C-alpha cells in the first residue's frame, strides 16, 4: 500500500504537464510525430538497406602511409611529382606544369562499396588564377600520364573531377540556362572512346555534379562516393558541418570489377597545392531481392549507363553583354579610323611623288 501511494505521488509530480495533452496540443504533437516518421523513413530509404560496412585496408590509403612508394611490393604506387609528407601525399606542388598521382596496385573485387576521401586544395593564387584541379579514379588502366587532371584521356572507368579553373567562362547549359560556378565537382563514365573536352570543362560528358567551395577552405574537405545496386551517389562535406550533402545521384550505372583506384592532379600555366590526406574504402553489406541477385549475374566488361541520352547536354556560347558590345564597337571604330588616316597619308605621299615625276 505504501508503494502504491508512492507511485501515485510520483505520477502527481508530472500533473503540471497535463495541459500539453489537451486535444489541440495532442493534434499538433501528432503532426510533429508523423513528420518525424516521414523524415526517418526517407533517411532509411537513402541508406538502401545497408546492413553494415567494414574497412578494407588493402584498398585504403591512410597515415602513416605505409605500403606507399615506388617499389613493386607497395600496395600504392607514386607517380610524377607525388611525394609523401607526414601529414599528406602532395600530388602536385604550387608550381606550373606539374603532374602527380597515386594508384592502387590491387584491382577492386568488391561489389558494394563506399569510398571516403579526405583532401585539400590550396595555394597563393587569386580566384580563377589557380588550377587545374584533381581527380579520383576507378579505371581499367593505371599509371598513365595524360591531359585529364594528370591521367589519360579516353579512359575506361569512372572519374570524379574536382575542377578549380573555368576553361570556358561563357558557356551556358541549355538544360538549366545557367553558367557553371567553380570550383565544380563532376562525374564522368568513360568507355574507352569518350573524350573529356577540356575546353568546355567536360560538360558534354558529365553525368552530374555540383558547385563546392573547396579551394583554400578553412575546413577539412571530404568526398564520399558510394556504389551499390547499380547506383552511384556522390556527396560532399566541405563547410565543417560534419554532414554529407548530395552532389550527384546516378542510377543504372554499371561498372566492371577488377578496376583500379587512383588519385591524380595537374597544374598548367596556373597552379595550386593538391594534397591527398586519406582514401578509405568500405565494403558494404547489402540486402538484395532474388530479382536483384539475378540482374547482378550479368557480366559487365565495358562501363555504361542506362538511358545515357538523359545526361547529354548542349552547350551554347553566351552572347556579349551591352558593355562588352559597346567596347567592341568602340575599338573597332577606332581601328577603322586609324587605318583610314594611314591610308590617306600613304595616298597623299604617293600622289606627291607622282607629280614630281612630271616636272
Automatic annotation (TrEMBL):
Its main location: membrane. The keyword Nucleus does not apply. It is a single-pass type I membrane protein; Single-pass membrane protein. InterPro entries: ConA-like_dom_sf, Intracellular_Lectin-GPT, Lectin_leg. It holds the Pfam family Lectin_leg-like. Residues 53-284 form the L-type lectin-like domain. The chain crosses the membrane at residues 325-347. GO terms for molecular function: D-mannose binding; metal ion binding. It is found in: Endomembrane system; Golgi apparatus membrane. SUPFAM superfamilies: Concanavalin A-like lectins/glucanases (SSF49899). The keyword Hydrolase does not apply. Signal peptide: none annotated. Keywords: Disulfide bond, Glycoprotein, Golgi apparatus, Lectin, Membrane, Metal-binding, Signal, Transmembrane, Transmembrane helix. It comes from the Eukaryota. GO terms for cellular component: COPII-coated ER to Golgi transport vesicle; endoplasmic reticulum membrane; endoplasmic reticulum-Golgi intermediate compartment; Golgi membrane. GO terms for biological process: endoplasmic reticulum to Golgi vesicle-mediated transport. PANTHER family: VESICULAR MANNOSE-BINDING LECTIN (PTHR12223), VIP36-LIKE PROTEIN (PTHR12223:SF20). This is VIP36-like protein. It comes from Liparis tanakae.
